[in-house]
Fold these 2 entries.
Entry 1:
Amino acid sequence: MNKTTIFYGSISLGLISGLIAIYYIVPGFDHILVSGDPAGSHFKHFIAFAVLAAIFFAVAVMNRNKK
Amino acid sequence: MYQIQIIVLAVIQGFTELFPISSLGHTIIVAGILNWHNILNDKNFVNLIVALHLGTTLALLIYYRQQWVKIIKGLFLSIREGNIKYSDDAWLSWLIIVGSLPAGLIGVFFESTLKKLFSSPYISTLFLIINGLVLILGDRIIKNKKKLKLRDLRLKDAIFIGLFQTFALLPGISRSGITLIAGLLSGLSLEDAGFYAFMLLTPIIGAAAIIEIPPLLADPNTNIPVIILGMCITGIMSYITTVFLAKYFKLGKLLPFGLYCITIGILAIVYFKLIA
């Protein structure tokens, strides 16, 4: 895989992970794959996906075009 | 939960967490033998056990402080320069990140299912025996495999080891033990597999401990000074076991741990079935 593909792939996965993190932290509607109150905020899920987003963005930064 | 129970749990956790013999399994079995059903059914039991791991995390961070400084510097340097070379500190940092992800994600999604297993000493005992058998298998792998250096691992090996680490979410399966075995299967020496297991343990148990502390603090029945004392006890005992294991792994033997797990497992089953 070339660096450009990894860069755009990582940005996409980072954005998806970030959106999933937001999905789990916002209360008021039922969340999937959770225990306890489905409509509450799910902090652990939020942290997990926020960390994942940070890792994907770090990979994207590593593979940026350095001109 | 009584103060003495928290102190006993801290001692067990500190002593057994880094040995490949399952700290959680021992905790549940000892609680079962002592008839401490109040703690096994306490809603904060798992939170407390995980919070005590903060002591273990600090012990590992202190013992491997020089390695961690190099790894973190290497990570930021690799991001800034957009370049990783195999076998340097940055490569090791990415092996740790990739290896930590599977257990972290699976732990978040299957937490409630796994928590149901935590209240059963029988299930912990069964998994402890399985853990022993896996360690004996590992002992045979040590003798057969040719040895790779940790820094020669590929990312797919780190994912493989990380996936193996998810089995440690089961009570009775040792996190360090199962990670060691996966490292050995990937071709590492016992010393390098042990080092990598401890490197993978640190962020996982540290993050889990930090996440579990707020619910404990929110409970009005929580005895914060005793829990802090428990963390200190766990930390001191973990540091001592780290010093011991770092030297022990150079001997390249897992058989004693395997036999120990099987013996304790069988004795615990006999106790629960016939005596208790």
Entry 2:
Amino acid sequence: MDTALFKFINGLAGKVPFLGKLYSGIANDYFLPIIVVLILVALWFGTRDPQRRKKNQRVVLIALIAIGIANALVAITNAFYFRSRPFTVLPPNQVHLFFYRPTDSSFPSNFATVLFAPAITVFMTDKRAGIILLAIAVIGAFGRVFIGIHYPSDVLGGAVYGAFASLVAYWLGKLFNPVLSWLLNLMKTFYLV
Amino acid sequence: MFLKLSLAYSIPVFLAGIGVLQGCAAYNGLSGLLFSPKKIFSYALAVIMIGLALASLFDWNWRYATGIIQGAQQAEFSFLGILLALVFTAILASLINRSRFHTTYKDAEGYDVLRDRTFFQAIKQRFGRRS
């Protein structure tokens, strides 16, 4: 089922090579993650309402924690489990590869994990920004399958890892609320909050 | 090669960071962070800088077919790029606006003080209060 779905999605890229090329830019390792970072910066500095700003700045810090946890979860998984990439398993004529050949484990998609972790974290506080970040995460996750470097279950796994990291980060944020408040107050001293 | 890749990644992040800060400062009325009193200039600068930076990251794989920056380093460079953008913005805007604001400051806290004074003026004011 996973392979069939991969072949279907990746096959679409094969039919329209222009889209494959376009997606190799959109879903590369840097383009969408930087957009996410810029949105987090915008949430930090671009919120007019002081009450909402307070919430947003706290959630940006929690989102950064979530990204850290998500990376750690992926690293731990990769230490015990390795899944080969689709282009190494399937015959070359069944994969339309629009990307370089990553050598790390296919599952979970680190890319999807890192995009979903802040998206879900922000969504819990700011629905509008959260939906934008979730849309970016979905586009990115789809793109990784489309260009032939992940199975659908890899990016789905990444989304689950991201959601889990987000929940853990939220819990940690509540547990260490005084530390976050102290950090925000320290930043306020230097006009950063 | 690593230095080349690091710069190829960090410079667009730095530029995009400046762009986002100019856009946010204009939207949020933080005149002390703006490079120009005209908001339209700040928005235009934001669009140009973010656009250039994203275009440069978009075609990464076509320029560096095998050039990879590992996730952890990517996070470090992103943080550094944004931090440098913030420092650069604070310094340049303080220099540009040094004679623009008067000393009749309104009560405010956090970065809201940058609505009517520059970063340098705000730091100087805080330091002056303590001494």
